[in-house]
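Side project, low priority. Logging it here so it doesn't get lost.
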Amino acid sequence: MRIMGLDYGSKTVGVAISDALCLTAQGKEIIRRKSENKLRQTLARIEELISEYEVSRIVLGFPKNMNNSVGDRARKSLEFKEMLERRTGLPVVMWDERLTTVEANRVLMESGVRREDRSRYVDEIAAVFILQSFLDARSRMDGETDIYSGGYERKG
Protein backbone atom coordinates (compact mmCIF):
# COMPACT_ATOMS: atom_id res chain seq x y z
CA MET A 1 0.00 0.00 0.00
CA ARG A 2 1.17 3.49 -0.80
CA ILE A 3 0.87 6.86 0.88
CA MET A 4 -0.41 9.98 -0.87
CA GLY A 5 0.96 13.45 -0.13
CA LEU A 6 -1.13 16.54 -0.85
CA ASP A 7 -0.26 20.23 -0.98
CA TYR A 8 -3.69 21.90 -0.68
CA GLY A 9 -3.92 25.43 -2.04
CA SER A 10 -6.68 27.88 -2.81
CA LYS A 11 -6.97 26.76 -6.46
CA THR A 12 -4.62 23.79 -6.78
CA VAL A 13 -3.73 20.54 -5.06
CA GLY A 14 -0.25 19.15 -5.63
CA VAL A 15 -0.17 15.35 -5.52
CA ALA A 16 2.68 12.99 -4.67
CA ILE A 17 2.62 9.21 -4.18
CA SER A 18 5.08 7.01 -2.34
CA ASP A 19 6.72 3.97 -3.86
CA ALA A 20 5.37 0.57 -2.80
CA LEU A 21 7.88 0.33 0.08
CA CYS A 22 6.94 3.82 1.32
CA LEU A 23 10.53 5.03 1.10
CA THR A 24 10.41 7.70 -1.60
CA ALA A 25 7.89 10.25 -2.85
CA GLN A 26 7.23 10.93 -6.53
CA GLY A 27 5.24 13.85 -7.90
CA LYS A 28 2.19 12.82 -9.90
CA GLU A 29 0.17 15.89 -10.85
CA ILE A 30 -1.43 19.18 -9.93
CA ILE A 31 -5.21 19.20 -9.70
CA ARG A 32 -6.52 22.64 -10.68
CA ARG A 33 -9.92 24.21 -10.05
CA LYS A 34 -11.51 27.50 -11.04
CA SER A 35 -12.70 28.47 -7.56
CA GLU A 36 -11.50 27.71 -4.04
CA ASN A 37 -14.87 26.26 -2.99
CA LYS A 38 -15.36 24.02 -6.05
CA LEU A 39 -14.01 20.79 -4.59
CA ARG A 40 -16.23 18.06 -6.06
CA GLN A 41 -14.01 17.35 -9.09
CA THR A 42 -10.86 17.72 -6.97
CA LEU A 43 -12.11 15.12 -4.49
CA ALA A 44 -13.22 12.83 -7.33
CA ARG A 45 -9.75 12.99 -8.91
CA ILE A 46 -8.09 12.26 -5.55
CA GLU A 47 -10.36 9.22 -5.20
CA GLU A 48 -9.32 8.02 -8.68
CA LEU A 49 -5.64 8.33 -7.73
CA ILE A 50 -6.25 6.53 -4.43
CA SER A 51 -7.77 3.62 -6.33
CA GLU A 52 -5.14 3.62 -9.09
CA TYR A 53 -2.18 3.61 -6.68
CA GLU A 54 -3.79 1.57 -3.86
CA VAL A 55 -3.27 4.35 -1.32
CA SER A 56 -3.83 3.46 2.33
CA ARG A 57 -3.08 6.82 4.00
CA ILE A 58 -3.01 10.50 3.06
CA VAL A 59 -0.51 13.08 4.30
CA LEU A 60 -1.89 16.60 3.97
CA GLY A 61 0.32 19.65 4.26
CA PHE A 62 -0.49 21.76 7.32
CA PRO A 63 0.45 25.38 6.56
CA LYS A 64 1.01 26.74 10.05
CA ASN A 65 2.33 30.26 10.45
CA MET A 66 6.03 30.70 11.11
CA ASN A 67 5.25 31.44 14.78
CA ASN A 68 3.52 28.03 14.96
CA SER A 69 0.00 29.51 15.15
CA VAL A 70 -2.92 28.23 13.09
CA GLY A 71 -4.16 30.81 10.59
CA ASP A 72 -6.92 30.91 7.99
CA ARG A 73 -5.10 28.74 5.43
CA ALA A 74 -4.37 26.07 8.07
CA ARG A 75 -8.03 26.07 9.17
CA LYS A 76 -9.08 25.52 5.55
CA SER A 77 -6.64 22.60 5.37
CA LEU A 78 -8.22 21.08 8.50
CA GLU A 79 -11.65 21.39 6.85
CA PHE A 80 -10.25 19.71 3.72
CA LYS A 81 -8.85 16.93 5.94
CA GLU A 82 -12.34 16.25 7.30
CA MET A 83 -13.76 16.16 3.75
CA LEU A 84 -11.06 13.74 2.64
CA GLU A 85 -11.64 11.41 5.59
CA ARG A 86 -15.41 11.39 5.05
CA ARG A 87 -15.16 10.90 1.30
CA THR A 88 -12.30 8.36 1.14
CA GLY A 89 -12.55 6.58 4.50
CA LEU A 90 -8.74 6.82 4.78
CA PRO A 91 -6.77 8.28 7.67
CA VAL A 92 -5.39 11.74 6.91
CA VAL A 93 -2.27 12.91 8.74
CA MET A 94 -1.65 16.66 8.96
CA TRP A 95 2.03 17.40 8.33
CA ASP A 96 3.91 20.65 8.86
CA GLU A 97 4.56 22.14 5.43
CA ARG A 98 6.21 25.42 6.36
CA LEU A 99 8.64 26.59 3.68
CA THR A 100 7.95 23.68 1.30
CA THR A 101 6.76 26.07 -1.43
CA VAL A 102 9.84 28.25 -0.89
CA GLU A 103 12.05 25.16 -1.16
CA ALA A 104 10.19 23.93 -4.25
CA ASN A 105 10.70 27.32 -5.93
CA ARG A 106 14.40 27.23 -5.02
CA VAL A 107 14.83 23.77 -6.56
CA LEU A 108 13.06 24.86 -9.74
CA MET A 109 15.19 28.02 -9.95
CA GLU A 110 18.40 26.03 -9.45
CA SER A 111 17.22 23.60 -12.12
CA GLY A 112 16.95 26.45 -14.61
CA VAL A 113 13.16 26.52 -14.86
CA ARG A 114 12.05 29.98 -15.97
CA ARG A 115 10.10 32.05 -13.44
CA GLU A 116 6.92 32.07 -15.55
CA ASP A 117 7.04 28.26 -15.85
CA ARG A 118 7.63 27.51 -12.15
CA SER A 119 3.95 27.83 -11.19
CA ARG A 120 3.21 24.82 -13.43
CA TYR A 121 5.31 22.59 -11.16
CA VAL A 122 5.69 24.17 -7.72
CA ASP A 123 2.63 22.60 -6.02
CA GLU A 124 3.54 19.10 -7.17
CA ILE A 125 7.10 19.51 -5.91
CA ALA A 126 5.83 20.92 -2.61
CA ALA A 127 3.66 17.78 -2.27
CA VAL A 128 6.77 15.66 -2.82
CA PHE A 129 8.60 17.56 -0.05
CA ILE A 130 5.64 17.13 2.34
CA LEU A 131 5.36 13.40 1.68
CA GLN A 132 9.12 12.77 1.71
CA SER A 133 9.43 14.59 5.04
CA PHE A 134 6.70 12.35 6.46
CA LEU A 135 8.31 9.20 5.06
CA ASP A 136 11.70 10.17 6.47
CA ALA A 137 10.23 10.90 9.90
CA ARG A 138 8.29 7.66 9.79
CA SER A 139 11.47 5.66 9.22
CA ARG A 140 13.28 7.52 12.02
CA MET A 141 10.37 7.03 14.45
CA ASP A 142 9.94 3.34 13.75
CA GLY A 143 7.79 1.86 16.48
CA GLU A 144 6.14 5.14 17.52
CA THR A 145 2.48 5.63 16.74
CA ASP A 146 2.10 9.40 17.01
CA ILE A 147 2.50 10.25 13.32
CA TYR A 148 0.11 7.48 12.31
CA SER A 149 -2.78 8.70 14.47
CA GLY A 150 -3.80 11.55 12.22
CA GLY A 151 -2.41 14.12 14.62
CA TYR A 152 -0.23 16.95 13.44
CA GLU A 153 2.17 17.17 16.37
CA ARG A 154 5.29 15.08 16.54
CA LYS A 155 6.53 13.54 19.76
CA GLY A 156 9.42 15.56 20.97
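Brief comment: The mean pLDDT is 84.
Revisit when time allows.
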